[in-house]
Amino acid sequence: MTQTMKFPDGFLWGGAVAATQCEGAWNEGGKGETVLDHCTTGDKDHPRLITDVIDPEYSYPTQRGCRQYEKYEEDIRLFAEMGFRTYRLSINWARIYPNGDDEVPNREGIEHYRKLFECCRKYSIEPTVTMTHYDMPWNICVKYGGWANRTVIDLFLNYARTLFSEYKGLVRRWLTFNEINFGTVTYGQIVTSGVLPENRRVVMDDPNASSEERSLRFQALHHELVASALAVKLGHEIDPENQIGCMQCGFTYYPLTSKPEDVLAAQHDMEIWNYYAMDVQCKGKYSYWAKRFWDEHEISIKIKEEDHRILKEGTVDFISFSYYKSDCSAAISDGDYNSGTNFGIPNPYLKSTEWGWAIDPQGLRYLLNEYYARYELPLMIVENGIGAYENKENDDSIHDQHRIDFLREHIVQIKAALKDGVDVIGYTPWSAIDIVSAGTGEMKKRYGFIYVDADDFGNGSYERYRKDSFYWYQRVIASNGEDLD
Ligand code: BGP
What domains are there in the chain, each with its CATH number? Predict the structure, then answer.
């Protein structure tokens, strides 16, 4: 396919990370414990465990990250060498409010990020900052029961006020919650919601969850949506220059067959797993699908009268989302739509990564068009990448042709979407540098342009090495997406 459309000038090329996965220094600089600090290493066959106390018997990889807390200057220098125009990172909530409900913020944490943002600006890299990315202070989980408790809205707003005030002028592009749709109601329930599961496992959606459990998760999500809307409004009040976006886990669903029932199942999954939260954040109200879904799953949530106004007043300026893979949906025999798992059915036409995630660049173009048609808001792809096993050769080179191929094909599809007329403003692949996997806690599931010499258990020098993809991406950015070879 020939693509003549060019990327617009000022397109935000960059890379992405999250604090809990890259910083390490989990108990330094006055930081409190987060949810992920309590999660052990797992692997693709074994879910991570959540331990109530830090148990020396286990390895806790996010406590180490890739040591970016101490090495941020070196990392940002390398990102600048690649030509990054933006760096998507997150602030660790527990570095600013160690317990989440502290009277005053932790100055050391505030100053750390100030220096980091100044360093980005020194290299003309604009920070794109997620306010919370799987980093709820552990104390909020234990003392308040996480986002299921409405009080947490005030705690978050206090945190948001501190960020907007302290970093006014330094940060202008904000994302409120990482993968708000996915993190709360499915992925382990814990990492975003802070609602501790009884079995203390970080697992995906539990299809056997009781209606009480489901209600709790959707109640937590409602509170997050209200908090996000309030934060958007506050951010605009503190600095009208702020651009504040939502961040969704992007799900592309195809009908498994052309059977009308399967088409309806795919429509259902698109509505629930993409638009449930997005409609609230972009249109300021729940979609008409939500009510049917609540009834169907016996979900009962409390929505206060004032919430309707808050949601309307706090819609976002742009949409950001992650995109890794697509899935298929099929009707189940005893109902008129798919059972609602968001880890759908494999697509027989697609190959998968070593972790079984379907590789589907065209699914990204499809999703960009779907989102733009529905909301007509600027779109930023803030995560996209391939997790793979990689080795450093004796000459310190790292040959990651699989990453180059993966990203190239996705960039071609972004170009195609631009040609379709979609307003795409940026692309920050996951991850800027090798970091700890959020799902499994492995270091060996590598995503970065930069190799970090570390294993799953903290062995290694933590030295940085440029992979082949580093040089390739440097050329891509220098040519504004024209040179993809
Ligand atoms: C997204 C998360 C990221 C990141 C990515 C890759 O869902 O926002 O934090 O980790 O997925 O997933 P994993 O690390 O499990 O391979």
Answer: 12-478 (3.20.20.80)
